[in-house]
Amino acid sequence: MVEEYNTDTEVLLRRTWKVRGKLGGEGKWDVEVGDPIPDVTNAETIDIIESKDQPIVSRRNTRINLEWRIRNLPYPIDIYSINVNNDEKCIIVKTSNKKYYKKLHVPELARLTLPLEQNNIQASHSFNTLIITYRKPQMLLDMEKEWFLELKNVKHVNTMPNECKTQ
Amino acid sequence: MPGTSEERQPTLSESYTTVFAQEEMAGTSPERQPIPSESYATGDVLVAPRTASEVIDIIKWKTRGNLLLHLKCFKGDSLAAAQVQEVRSITRIERIGAHSHIRGLGLDDSLEPRAVSQGMVGQKMARKAAGVILQMIREGKIAGRAVLLAGQPGTGKTAIAMGLAQALGPDTPFTSMAGSEIYSLEMSKTEALTQAIRKSIGIRIKEESEIIEGEVVEVVVERAAGAGGARLGRLTLKTTDMETNYDMGTKMIDSLLKEKVYYLHVYKFDLLIYFDMAYLWYKGGSGLRGVWRPPPNLVQAGDVITIDKATGKINKLGRSFARARDYDATGQQARFVQCPEGELQKRKEVVHTVTLHEVDVINSRTHGFLALFSGDTGEIKSEIREQINAKVTEWREEGKAEMIPGVLFIDEAHMLDIECFSFLNRALESDTAPVVMMATNRGITRIRGTNYKSPHGIPLDLLDRMIIVPTAPYSQQELKEILNIRCEEEDCQMSNDALTVLTRIATETSLRYAIQLITTASLVARRRKANEVSMEDVKKVYSLFLDEHRSEQFVKEYQDEFMFNDGAGGEMAHTLKTTQ
């Protein structure tokens, strides 16, 4: 697992997990939070893939909210119905025109075994993007606070290549 | 005489040409006019004013020289089954190889060899033996058996091995190599052998994989602008809740398009007759009836399919209930299913078959990624193999995986040397060993790498661990049968007397030489604008091309006039020796 934080705002920018196949090998990165990693595999070798104009889900958390952005969704806001399903532990996004359906899992809450609450959900739609926000419950906020205190002790790795000398 | 017990097809000759010409003349009356196949609509009932066997004969005669598929028989009527057996059922894109006419071992259900079947002729004892071995492999209980196919050149050893591979089907790993392939500068002999052995063992494993499951809304394939533009494919799938467009790669487009031929379903014989044979059929009238419809495995709007995202394998589950009313488009055998619900993409347990070698390659870190591009795996560390073996045993104990021992076929086994043989001795004892099949055409000869002589050039201790299947030279009747099959395979129509002459050539020289003459003779015949190869054509190529025996004669006769042969041969050899 790899996490990237913004040290100023203490917000998680990216959290990715390496998933290995059963047969072994290198495995692939599965992005939980943050923008998806662009796929480098050649288009020639791919058999089937979603078209570029199809909806894409990406996660981006803020300090107080969990946030999902679904791009390429042109339908107006009243088309969507966003409901919590605690049996399957996910948020279900439906469209009344039967064009889009997605189960959004919430691993942060699943780890704390917290139930999902409909009241915490808010949604807005603009520029072909549906933004769903879920207010972080107090328990999660507390845990994150502790976690950042822990992170303070971690030595920073400077990823900027400032030691790259010019001639 | 062997080879006559099965009913032979009448040779399709001029008689049909005249019948057909007459009919084309007669077909001018409006109701008997054959309609261009493009104008047939799904569900049209068409009639051929002939009996089934006539129809089959005409199709066979007409399709010579055409590589597309025409006839495919489903299980069912015995008449159709017997007749259609000879007709290939797959689209031919590959070139015609020496053994491309072989489609199986030619055995019946009780593993008794049929005289002429699946491209196999004669060699009954050897085929029966191969059938027993086939059963042994299928049961998969016994590991590490070795089989030796021994016989003179041109007696069908490789053909039997190829037939066995075909009979085993695509799920059982079958590795074919020549004995000399192990001599490489990049890899040690034992490494090459180990890889070959591990390529021959499959593991069937359950793995969670991304599956797209939905109903097809539309399949569109179009060519990008400009000459030779890449093809673009788009597939729209839906569930009851959503709809998504997918882009398809070239491979996927090909697999979807390949089957895009309509067919005629003849109820009486459960027979499928493909597109370009449609000129046989008329609308209305009496005779053999059929219904015009798309082939069963064509993916079209209204089908419910699953696509394995990793492998791109498409599986058709059935037709959606919503489309149940276009019954004619689907036929009796169509299965109706509900349109899936929820998300299109799901995670499901799928059974994969991989070979041990593939697992090795995935896990050998140094090569893992690059190996996919170069295809060159180099040597794989023995620690990795041990780890994988341990892992596989663990999976098997937990019931997560199943081992499928396959076949390693080593042609020209006398080219292996003593080190390889001793390695094989050891490798066969492992419980993960495949069935090793070897073929050799040598008699008592030197074992490579030693000065000892042994039968087949294989050391006695290994021979002792083998079951040996001998192949015997073909009889004249069998030779004729093989030549006949080859003529069909090479799309060459040969007159009866030409075939007799060719058979005679095969008995006197060799079968391989006679087979070489088929295409050459047909080219000669084509030069004089004849459709059929006559005796003269065969005679002509016989005089044009020498067989091995006549070539030897020729060399002996004119030896003095060849290079380096002015009585200095001995001297040459001597100087060579001194310079080395």
Automatic annotation (TrEMBL), chain A:
What's the superkingdom here? Eukaryota
InterPro entries reported in the protein's UniProt record = DPCD
Q: Which Pfam families match?
A: DPCD
Q: Which family does it belong to?
A: Belongs to the DPCD family.
Name the chain's protein: Protein DPCD
Record gene name: Dpcd
UniProtKB/TrEMBL annotation, chain B:
Which InterPro entries does the UniProt entry name for this protein? AAA+_ATPase, P-loop_NTPase, RuvB-like, RuvB-like_C, RuvBL1/2_DNA/RNA_bd_dom, TIP49_P-loop
GO CC: one term? histone acetyltransferase complex
Keyword Iron-sulfur listed? The answer is no
Q: Where does this one sit in the cell?
A: Nucleus
Which terms under GO biological process does the entry name? Answer: DNA repair; DNA repair-dependent chromatin remodeling; negative regulation of signal transduction; positive regulation of DNA-templated transcription; regulation of canonical Wnt signaling pathway; regulation of cell population proliferation
* GO molecular function term, any single one: ATP binding
Q: Where is the AAA+ ATPase domain?
A: 143-473
Iron-sulfur keyword on record: no
According to the record, the segments passing through the membrane are none
Catalytic reaction(s) noted: ATP + H2O = ADP + phosphate + H(+)
Which coarse location class describes where this protein primarily resides?
nucleus
- Say what the protein does: Proposed core component of the chromatin remodeling Ino80 complex which is involved in transcriptional regulation, DNA replication and probably DNA repair.
What's the protein name? RuvB-like helicase
Q: Which organism is it from?
A: Eumeta variegata (Bagworm moth)
From which lineage does this chain's organism come? Eukaryota, Metazoa, Ecdysozoa, Arthropoda, Hexapoda
